[in-house]
Each structure stands twice: as C-alpha cells, then as structure tokens.
Design brief:
By secondary structure, this protein is α+β, with helices and mostly antiparallel strands. It has a single domain, classed as Winged helix-like DNA-binding domain superfamily/Winged helix DNA-binding domain (Arc Repressor Mutant, subunit A). The chain has four helices and three strands, in the order H-H-E-H-H-E-E. Helix 2 (25-36) crosses helix 4 (53-65). The longest helix is centred in the first third of the chain and has 14 residues, at 3-16. The protein is globular, with a radius of gyration of 14 Å. The model has no long low-confidence stretch (mean pLDDT 88).
Length: 87
C-alpha cells in the first residue's frame, strides 16, 4: 500500500466516524462494539460494554438520532430489537 493510499484510507475512516465524534463516550463505545460485531441486542450490548442497560438505551437513542445505527425487530423474539452499525 502506498502512502497516498494509506492517507486516503485514514480519511475514509475518519469521515465514517464523523457523526459519532461529538456524541457521549457511551455512544462511542456502543458504536465501536457494533463495529466489531455485526448485530447485537440491547442486552448483548450491555454485556459487551459493561455499561448499565439504561446507559446503553441512551447511547442507542443518540446513535439513532444521528443515523449511525440500524435497528430491526428480531425474528426469533419480537420483543427484542437488533442493532447494527450503518456507517
């Protein structure tokens, strides 16, 4: 990889996270965990991040406001929502 390709890749990555940059640390953590995992429920996110469920709920709502994540109902349990990163 040439230097210009590496710089372009870094700029793409920074543009990708631009919407997350000004959000609270909890939202950034939830976004990063979703970056490593394809799709997780709210309870799985709480387990992975070690954050309280209430904090995860707040982080998810902030991420949804910024259109950073996608959410859909789980087919196996309609009471749960599945979250994935959209950026």
């Amino acid at each position: 990889m040439s230097t210009t390709e590496a710089v372009a890749a870094d700029e793409d990555a920074s543009d990708r996270w631009e919407a997350v940059r000004d959000l609270p640390p909890s939202a950034k953590l939830v976004a990063k965990v979703l970056d490593y995992n394809d799709t997780l429920t709210q309870s799985q996110l709480a387990e992975e991040t070690l954050l309280p469920p209430r904090t995860v709920r707040y982080a998810l709502s902030r991420l949804e406001e910024e259109d950073v994540i996608d959410s859909r109902f789980s087919f196996t349990d309609a009471r749960k929502r599945l979250y994935s990163l959209a950026v």
